[in-house]
Design goal:
Elements (H helix, E strand, L loop, with lengths): L3 H19 L4 H21 E7 L4 E3 L11 E6 L9 E4 L2 E2 L12 E5 L4 E6 L8 E8 L4 E11 L1
Parallel strand pairs: 1-9
Antiparallel strand pairs: 2-7, 3-4, 3-8, 4-5, 6-7, 8-9
Helix pairs in contact: 1-2
Organism: Fundulus heteroclitus (Killifish)
Main location: membrane
Protein name: Ig-like domain-containing protein
Length: 154
């Protein structure tokens, strides 16, 4: 029995072979797409950090700018929130409270922005905070994305 990842890998490989048979001149492009897909599938589960917290605690969800560069913007999002509003949006050297999700107002801060540490400090954790959080942070021309899974219980 193949694991889901193995099935995906195998189907991607067969698509690559079929595309090469139809149009050999596009083999390099298709091979590049296949390798990119493979690398993404291999790296994403390992990159996620799981954090457990009890209700009422303060937690820190880690995130650093690329190579500890000066941060120009950082946006923490919870991937399962339908509103699309950020948990914490840092731009122009301050928190943008206007766009912040109301359930996170007055409960978030960033660890040490001046030194490239944009870890999210989340205070008074509740079970409603359980979810997957993403932190794409932009330094001087480069982007890094960190993913954390917060699991809270009462």
């Amino acid at each position: 029995m193949l694991l889901p990842f193995s099935e995906h890998l195998l189907s991607s490989f067969f698509l690559l072979l079929a595309a090469a048979a139809v149009c050999p001149s596009h083999l390099a492009v298709n091979a590049s797409f296949f390798l990119t897909s493979l690398l993404c599938d291999v790296s994403s589960p390992a990159d996620q950090i799981n954090i457990r917290a009890e209700s009422g605690e303060t937690v820190i969800l880690p995130c650093r700018a690329p190579e500890n560069q000066t941060v120009t913007s950082a946006e923490w999002r919870r991937t399962d929130l339908e509103s699309g509003q950020p948990v914490h949006l840092y731009r122009k050297e301050k928190l943008d409270e206007e766009t912040q999700s109301p359930s996170f107002r007055n409960r978030t801060d960033l660890q040490d922005v001046e030194n490239g540490d944009v870890s999210l400090v989340l205070q008074k954790v509740t079970t409603a905070d359980t979810g997957t959080y993403e932190c794409p942070s932009r330094g001087c021309g480069s982007l890094r994305r960190d993913v954390c899974r917060l699991i809270s219980w009462s």
